Amino acid sequence: MTPPRRVSRRQFGIRGLQLLGVSLLTGCDALSQSSWFAGLLERAEGLTRAVQKAITPRLALAREFAEADRSRVFPGNGTVDPSEPDYQALTGTGFSAYRLEIGGLVERPASFSLAELRSLPSRTQITRHDCVEGWSAIAKWKGVRLAALLERVGVKPGARYVVVHCFDALREGGEKYYESLDLGDALHEQTILAYDMNDHALPVTNGAPLRLRVERQLGYKAAKYVRRVELVERFDTIGQGKGGYWEDRGYEWWAGI
Amino acid sequence: MILPDRRVYRHALPTRLGHWLTALCLLVLVMSGLQIFNAHPSLYWGERSDPDRALLRLKAVENSEGETRGITEILGREFDTTGMLGASRRRGPDLEERGFPWWATLPGDQWLAMGRRWHFFFAWIFVLNGLGFGLWALARGHLAHDLWPSGTDLRGIARSLVDHLRFRHPTGMAASRYNVLQKLSYLGVIFGLAPLIVASGLAMSPAMDATVPWLPSLFGGRQAARTVHFVACFAFVGFVAGHLFMVVVTGLWNNVRSMVTGWYRVHSEGVVDDTT
């Protein structure tokens, strides 16, 4: 055993660790860019969805809070004032000309004015909105149950997803916001199209005239500025095919976590 | 006369495999976790994130000279942490608004969607690996035989503590077994910190909260769970720092080799050989 060999081995080890550190940082970024590795990471979403769907009772409700628990200010995130001319035309008339269209794989395609939606049985819930960014806010929502609307139009047997199309594009001239739910979440008791927030008509900042509430998933599922509801068998031909605006930009379709 | 070294089989294969998988998972989970934290670099207590009631906030401000400064705000007190927290540099000389700096996050750039992909993939491996190791350790007696402190161990805590502070570490055959402080810290991590970080992480999931309504309440609300998750993360970082320190001072290569091959070298005279 000769000392020089030991030293060189040690130096080799230290150099190796330094190299490892640098290559970890740059290598992980390279991995994030590679489609095969991103595809591998995405597999966790299927496992999470399968497990959460399996352990969550179909009817389990998200917690509902008391009036006093509400946030003083409910943040407006993403689009807060759609600039699209067709939307601007509606705000000018207080949404009196607004009609929610429901089509796709339904027996009787229909459209509803806000007054008609308000005349249907409503549900009121004080729930916590959890943004994918990490913040939470609590507000009171009143609206019509999506299940009640779907019952009126009659869902065709082949339909598997409810796609919600919106007025707004996050960037001017960009793709319009949209979201999709499976029928299980669409028919859930707390899944509503809300027209009131905290006892007042939904403000433009928070999605007037109608926004989706999906209480067992993250906030990006709760699409604002809802224009049209479409029932489909699959959503891979819509947008970039991932089932939602943020899903098309790398976020999980299953937003339960 | 030089006696040949003795080799002791110190770590079984499941321990070694579990150890390195956990090490990889922790590295990825901490860094991708900081990426996720950076999307909203503030912490709160309770269910809501009221902007005026943040416990901790990392932010960038412009001072009177028009320079960007990184500010860490803790319970209303502000500290200038430019270059590290609040505002730091990635490319070029300009300070960018960022909670934690690029080298602490995965990916390096602000990319929440990809940070979440990394985080949840490795969270599954962390949990499955932890459960697998736990069940094996329980079934094969590793837990009872090697990790659970005996009465003698517990009576020797004070002495072990003093020995550690004086850097007098067990030698010879005693070094092939865990000492009482090691046992307690490993048990604390396995049965305390690890379940805590998983539970507080799950408490942030809206689907889990519908399934187990008392889960966020256990921590004092979803935002409190997020704070607990953050603190537990740094408890892990602290544990790893202490662990690495002990690995280095008690014979880096012998320790690393035993966690790779299982074999730990002990001098026949009873002196640990930490030079090869």
Describe this structure as you would to a colleague.
- The complex is a heterodimer of chains A (257) and B (276).
- Chain A is built from six helices and ten strands, in the order H-H-H-E-E-H-E-E-H-E-E-H-E-E-E-E.
- A five-stranded mixed β-sheet of chain A has the order 2-1-10-5-6.
- Chain A has helices at 3-33, 35-55, 85-92, 114-119, 146-153, 183-186; strands at residues 99-104, 110-113, 122-130, 136-145, 161-169, 176-182, 192-197, 200-201, 211-213, 226-232.
- The model of chain A has no long low-confidence stretch (mean pLDDT 93).
- Chain A is of the alpha+beta class.
- In chain A, strand 5 (161-169) and strand 6 (176-182) form a beta hairpin.
- Chain B is α+β, with helices and mostly antiparallel strands and 276 residues long.
- Chain B is built from ten helices and eight strands.
- In chain B, the strands form three sheets. In chain B, strands 2-3-4-5 form a four-stranded antiparallel β-sheet.
- The two termini of chain B are 19 Å apart.
- Classes of the chains: A alpha+beta (257), B alpha+beta (276).
